[in-house]
Amino acid sequence: MSPPSTKNNERLTMKKLIALTLVTLGITVSARAQWIVYDPANTVQSIINTAQEIAKFVEVVNNQVQQIQALNDQLNEFKHYESLFGDPKAVVLATVQPLVTDLRKTELGQTLTTLEGAVDAGEAMLYDANGLFTNRFPFDHGRTFR
């Protein structure tokens, strides 16, 4: 038989070896615990959604191209009219000046200061328009204010 100290050393070594093996095994198993999940239905739906978004984007771009073409056509039409009739700024109508002067006149030849001077605030507060504006509260018995 082997001496007791050698037996204890062998047991201690064996325990260390078992512990090291278990720790190594635990690390190895936990490192491979992640699985790749592939969902073909979700992937197909994602591709379909992306294709629809691209189709909508293409439609928006086509609409913008059509709008730009329409604006270009309008610009060409205006240029054609300008070449036919000349620059519109150069045209002066004989009726424009009387219209401008008429618009710059004040109403009935009175200015705002003249109208403000003619207003009597006290008179306006007491005016009842021949009985049209009367007090209709029951405690005043229908009398007008004067």
Task: Write the topology of this structure.
Blueprint lengths: L3 H28 L8 H46 L10 H9 L7 H7 L2 H6 L20
Essential attributes:
2 domains, mainly alpha, 146 residues, 66% helix
What does this structure look like?
This protein is mainly alpha-helical and 146 residues long. The chain has 2 domains: 41-88; 92-146, no CATH class. The protein is built from 5 helices and no strands. The termini are far apart.
Task: Report a brief summary of the structure.
With 146 residues, the chain is mainly α. The protein has helices at 4-31, 40-85, 96-104, 112-118, 121-126. The chain has 5 helices and no strands.
The number of helical segments is 5
Q: Give the total of domains.
A: 2
N- and C-termini, Cα separation: 138 Å
Largest sheet: none
Kindly name the structural category. Answer: mainly alpha
Radius of gyration: 49 Å
Mean pLDDT, as a whole number?
78
Shape verdict: elongated
Spans of at least 5 consecutive residues whose pLDDT stays below 50 are none
Task: Report the count of strand segments.
Answer: 0
Order of helices and strands: HHHHH
In what range is the share of β-strand residues?
Answer: under 5%
Helix content: 55-70%
Multimerization status: single chain
